[in-house]
Amino acid sequence: MMDLNIAVVGLGYVGLPVAAEFGKELPVVGFDISEERIAELQSGFDRTNEVDTRTLQETKIDFTANPAKIKSSNFIIVAVPTPINDSNQPDLSALLNASQLVGENITKGAIVVFESTVYPGATEEECIPVLERASGLKEGVDFFVGYSPERINPGDRVHTFRTITKVVSANHPEALRTIANTYNRVVDAGVYPVDSIKVAEAAKVIENTQRDLNIALMNELSMLFRILEIDTDQVLKAAGTKWNFLDFRPGLVGGHCIGVDPYYLTYKAESVGYTPQIILSGRRVNDNVSKFVVSNIVKELICQGIDLNGAKISILGLTFKENVPDLRNSKVFDIVDELKQYNFDMQIADPLADPAEAKTHYGVDLVPHSELEPADLVILAVAHDEFQANLQAQHYLVKPNQKTLFVDLKRVFDKKEMPELVHYWGL
Predict the structure, then answer these.
(1) For the purposes of burial, counting CB atoms within 10 Å of the CB of 370, is it exposed (0-12), middle (13-18) or buried (19 or more)?
(2) pLDDT score at 393
């Protein structure tokens, strides 16, 4: 096995945990194009909350924004974002820019492993040609490429980089052995080699596509049971008593994985003349949950005799999931946009989100949780631990001694424990 000199390109939610685990074993070059990001990591601070200060200080990572430092590495891991654009089409710009940068700094004999989520075929059809043009080298002769899909679950302290089986692939047997042996050094759960890069790419996108479809079914059932005046939560708890019933729940489907990856697969399908029916149907259902929620909120307010004009509304949580600060592709913004059609007095709180980012990138002003005023309507959109603890103590932050509405999108609280004048509704 060759002497390893590892570089990780892209130090976000995926790349930083990867770099940190390798950095416990080996010297690592941690590269990111953001000098601000590099500076904060050098100071021991990770805004994503994925790696703590002590780990950052103890790992052997050379944080840098200088791409020339990649030249010293012979095992380069690329972990940059692969979002979708406004038309729900894959946006590979960051990935192709990273490929160009790596190609300009690669040396003979190096292995490049892509971890970014893509559609089947993207690594070979898009990334390798850029690497070859930028380097003047030939893949399979002068350097080698593999693909090992990321499986990071932001905010999860149980299923981590070390504890999740790592799928690995490459176009050449010797490169695959090196990739497998390298990841085996830091992944306790072991590696799972597959026959081709396309298989590994496809495995990644269907993991989240499967979850998306299961949640879409739950969301559709919630919409149906709402019309039938049946409590969805009670139905799911009853059905869950059967051993093989899958425990999926309705809810907002955002973030940079479940709400994005299916579009990568449908894009590839349509490019070869196949129109996927089920996958796109699931996406349509999940993308319309916000409209369903707001429509029912307005109906409930009217039924409860709450004046819509100037009603005070509190929205608790803005990030795409609980206990993470990531605002990217959060569907709570869709709820905010839908509510703006009415003359509501909105206040939004999130203890983990960066207020500057929320204002600059999304035009949302955050209110400190401690400064929220009692409201006619409280929407628990994201079940951060801090909200769950404080809501119990603060009587749900609703106006006292008058009819109010509490909307629990995560079904955290028990309807039976609500104060008498609080009407409770959840997905």
Answers:
(1) exposed
(2) 52
User: Does residue 260 have a pLDDT over 70?
Assistant: yes
Tell me the per-residue pLDDT of 79-107, one tens digit each, with 9 for 90 and over.
999 999 999 999 999 999 999 999 999 99
Catalytic residue among 11, 216, 252, 257: 257
pTM: 0.93
Q: Are 331 and 382 in contact (CB under 8 A)?
A: no
Residue 316 burial class via C-beta count within 10 angstroms: exposed 0-12, middle 13-18, buried 19 and up: buried
- Cα(368)–Cα(366) distance, integer angstroms: 7
pLDDT mean over 358-367 = 93
Which residue shows structure tokens 């409590």?
A: 231
Distance, in Å, from the CA atom of 349 to the CA atom of 337, rounded to the nearest integer, reads 16
CA-based nearest residue to 323, from 401, 400, 257, 383 = 383
Per the model's pLDDT, the better-predicted residue between 352 and 416 turns out to be: 352
As given in the structure block, the two tokens for residue 28 are: 């690592």
The 10s digit of each residue's pLDDT in 265-305 is 999 999 999 999 999 999 999 999 999 999 999 999 999 99
- pLDDT beyond 60 at 347: yes
**pLDDT averaged over the chain?**
93
Distance of alpha carbon 396 from alpha carbon 19, whole angstroms:
41
> In sequence order, what DSSP letters do the residues of 171-229 get, joined into one string?
SSHHHHHHHHHHHHTT-TT-EEE-S-HHHHHHHHHHHHHHHHHHHHHHHHHHHHHHHTT
Predicted confidence (pLDDT) at residue 199 exceeds the cutoff of 60: yes
How is residue 49 written in tokens? 């909350």
Say which residue the tokens 């004046």 belong to: 307
Q: Which H/E stretch holds residue 397?
A: none
- The vertex-66 CA angle with 21 and 53, nearest 5°, equals 35
CA–CA distance, 333 with 210 (Å, rounded to integer): 24
257 is catalytic: yes
- Chain centroid to CA 92: how far? 17
Helix 289-303 and helix 278-287, axial crossing angle in degrees, nearest 10: 40
Q: How far apart are CA 49 and CA 23, in angstroms?
A: 17
Q: What b/e readout covers 57-90, taking b as 16+ CB neighbours within 10 angstroms?
A: eebebbbbeebebbeebbbbbbbbbbebeeebeb
Question: Are 121 and 201 in contact, with CB atoms under 8 Å apart?
Answer: yes
Q: What is the CA radius of gyration of the chain?
A: 24
Whole-angstrom distance, CA of residue 349 vs CA of residue 370: 9
